[in-house]
Design brief:
Distance between the termini: 34 Å
Radius of gyration: 20 Å
CATH architecture of the largest domain: 2-Layer Sandwich
Order of helices and strands: EEEHHHEEHHHEHEHEEHHHHH
Strand content: 15-25%
Structural class: alpha+beta
Number of helices: 13
Shape: globular
Number of strands: 9
Helix content: 40-55%
Number of domains: 2
Largest sheet: 6 strands, mixed
CATH topology of the largest domain: Cytochrome Bc1 Complex, Chain A, domain 1
Strand order of the largest sheet: 1-2-6-3-5-4
Length: 321
């Protein structure tokens, strides 16, 4: 099921085999340094991570922190929102915020509306400065903040995608009502973008790049399947999907890649893990992608609407490896 208005698209997939709803909200926010956002997420900053994309990451994390405060700040908020597994990622130049909640229309409406109400980039100059100090050692300039705000608001105005999948009973008319409530909360859409003179792109003298990782170029549904296959068959190698593909956090990835590139082995894995799900595979695969932080809302929606077939993924995995 799908409903949309001028700025927001809401897609819902139904599966009877999930415990509740997995919800994913995303919008274009290019330039975020995934490694910087990850450091802020795990609170392991050292004040020395100044690189291209630091400013965007600091604003992105400020937005996520605002959503956290609304949905899961304390037991009181959790009792009201019924939200769990709240996370933030950057995938394919989109800021992705996802969570799990009860499988009801009212829960979908409430959580999306609360998240939407705080996505106001221009209001987080203080949080931006705090994050910049933690990440880079300096609070950043006002022009740096304006630069990041301009990119975030521009992305919001290009369109927000929300995809929810799981155990829910609803109709298109009910989804239209939900969309109307959520749309009314996106006040950032009416905010003016800072002008170019007050938001020049910051200069970066250095870039810290982790060379102890492997990369696999892929995106969309194929990237979810590849990341799952690598993680499940590599004795615990850490796998993420970031801006432009899959990142494998292991210096021995290239040697492991050769062992994994076996079409019979890949087909056997897909048959065992995916084919048995039958007609519910698209919804369950989208649910998996959201809950594992492997996709943005647009990818999840495409999987649901295109009725993704398990057999199509074997060739994609083999080609990427």
């Amino acid at each position: 099921m799908e409903v949309s208005d001028k700025h927001i698209k809401l897609v819902v997939g139904v599966s009877k085999r999930t415990p509740g709803l997995a919800v994913c909200m995303s919008f274009q926010f290019p330039g975020i340094a995934a490694c910087c956002l990850k450091q802020l997420m795990c609170n392991c900053t050292n004040g020395q991570m100044y690189m291209k994309g630091s400013e965007e990451a600091c604003l992105a994390f400020a937005l996520f922190e605002a959503v956290v405060e609304k949905l899961v700040k304390s037991p009181l908020e959790v009792s009201k929102s019924r939200v769990s597994s709240l996370s933030c990622r950057v995938i394919e130049d989109r800021l992705v915020i996802s969570w799990s909640c009860q499988g009801t229309g009212s829960s979908l409406r409430k959580t999306c509306a609360l998240a939407a109400s705080v996505l106001q980039p221009h209001r987080f100059s203080g949080k931006f400065a705090e994050n910049m100090r933690a990440l880079t050692g300096k609070p950043g300039q006002r022009s740096d903040f304006n630069y990041a705000v301009r990119k975030a608001i521009d992305g919001l105005k290009k369109g927000i995608e929300i995809t929810a999948v799981g155990k829910i009973t609803t109709t298109n008319d009910k989804l239209k009502d939900i969309l109307g409530v959520v749309s009314s909360k996106f006040s950032a859409l009416a905010h003016d973008v800072p002008d170019a003179k007050s938001s020049n792109a910051p200069e970066h003298k250095s870039a810290n790049i982790d060379s102890k990782v492997g990369h696999v170029k892929s995106n969309g549904a194929a990237a979810i399947a590849i990341a799952d296959y690598i993680r499940s068959n590599s004795n615990g190698m850490g796998v993420d999907i970031e801006n432009h593909g899959i990142v494998v956090h292991n210096p021995n990835w290239e040697s492991k890649r050769k062992a994994l590139k076996s079409l019979p082995k890949i087909k056997d894995y897909v048959d065992k893990k995916y084919a048995k799900l039958g007609d519910e595979f698209p919804s369950l695969f989208a649910y998996f992608g959201i809950t594992q932080g492997f996709c943005h809302a647009g990818t999840a929606a495409k999987i649901i609407k295109s009725k993704q077939k398990p057999g199509e993924l074997s060739t994609a995995i083999n080609a990427a490896l």
